Amino acid sequence: xxxxxxxxxxxxxxxxxxxxxxxxxxxxxxxxxxxxxxxxxxxxxxxxxxxxxxxxxxxxxxxxxxxxxxxxxxxxxxxxxxxxxxxxxxxxxxxxxxxxxxxxxxxxxxxxxxxxxxxxxxxxxxxxxxxxxxxxxxxxxxxxxxxxxxxxxxxxxxxxxxxxxxxxxxxxxxxxxxxxxxxxxxxxxxxxxxxxxxxxxxxxxxxxxxxxxxxxxxxxxxxxxxxxxxxxxxxxxxxxxxxxxxxxxxxxxxxxxxxxxxxxxxxxxxxxxxxxxxxxxxxxxxxxxxxxxxxxxxxxxxxxxxxxxxxxxxxxxxxxxxxxxxxxxxxxxxxxxxxxxxxxxxxxxxxxxxxxxxxxxxxxxxxxxxxxxxxxxxxxxxxxxxxxxxxxxx
Length: 394
Description:
Blueprint: H1 2-16, H2 29-35, E1 41-55, E2 64-79, E3 82-91, E4 95-108, E5 111-119, H3 142-145, E6 152-162, E7 167-174, E8 178-180, E9 208-218, E10 221-231, E11 233-234, H4 245-253, E12 257-269, E13 272-284, H5 286-289, E14 302-312, E15 321-336, E16 348-361, E17 364-375, E18 383-393
Parallel strand pairs: 8-11
Antiparallel strand pairs: 1-2, 1-18, 2-3, 3-4, 4-5, 5-6, 6-7, 7-9, 9-10, 10-12, 12-13, 13-14, 14-15, 15-16, 16-17, 17-18
């Protein structure tokens, strides 16, 4: 399987080398608002309503219907170079979050300053998370556990484009994950997801570095290289007695050093669509961190995940779209472990998706897919799930 997938990626990239140069990068919704200069106030939004039904020949399961998320985007242009963008989200009807709220000041096409609550540029879906922008009802599992979409934190930095080189870049300093707030927030079961601070009374003892470079110089192809480096935050540093070696040692043991790297690609030519990504996260100090574990599954010393996806628009060239797709995904939050910890294969998982999306108009999609999920733990039982949903984006 791995040889086949590696060959597929090589063929896709090899074919794309014969294409002509592109002129513009792929922009997410917030970036599109920054580019639109005609009106001072801009409004957009997206929503997602899902149905998930696990099926089994031996066991009956109830289906789940959920207004997964309803979101409004607002942008305001103070001057032609100074903008504010925010994203307000209702999740599951009763949860309210601010997912973005930042000011962008553009000096020129090469350089902009940005600060506030922003998306961490890692992978594909975290920056392009609207339901019309990805295949399948649910976001890829890698973009849930390892890249915990929607991953946003408070920070500041720079970004821009180098048009002559077909490069778009981002460089930010953020607060880190909240690794310990009285209980451990990172684990083999949940990965990084429970550790997001989301701009809510955020704690920070030292900033983390986030960066991404996208290359778009080949027609239809976007390649992204991203990195994230720093330490998790800990409650034990708040009010720490600097003269106490015991207190310092305890606080140090409650943090994890993160070095995460990602490589992704999106390639479209005619009706054919493909994308894939690989994520690797090294976790230093995980052995000491596990001593603070409150009966959660222990944290490994590395997480890995990757997927490869292909689709074909049967209505290419028309105003409507009909895209069947397949995706294979593998992720392991115990890719490696430290000390005496034994790898838990319950966290070593394979998933396969096959589905179709119908777009009657730009900004609306009806989706249905089949999901097969199984861990590599001995005796594990596979999960078979039917997902269906409606997505809108405007």
